[in-house]
Amino acid sequence: MESQAHRHESAHPGAGTYIVIAVILSAVTAIEVTAYYITGLRNSAIFVPILLAFSALKFALVAMFFMHLKFDGRLFSSFFVGGFILGAAVLIALMALTRAL
Q: Where are the alpha helices (DSSP H) in 11-46?
């Protein structure tokens, strides 16, 4: 039983991995901010889907690494992914209902 706990602890990444994830999150945020300041892109129909995709990417990275879902059971990951999909579906349905699409 003690060896299982030790194996679980050793599966977690080191500080270097978290620094890499932080750099990736910063880069994605910089891309989002840059996309906002490109006037032609901001006025196009693909602007909101681009921002939503980058937000989903950031959510997945934070949930997998900083919340340790990548290293925990699939049940926890299913709750987070299921909630994210449900929330996105409600948002899209609401936007369609109010004709904001």
A: 15-37, 39-42
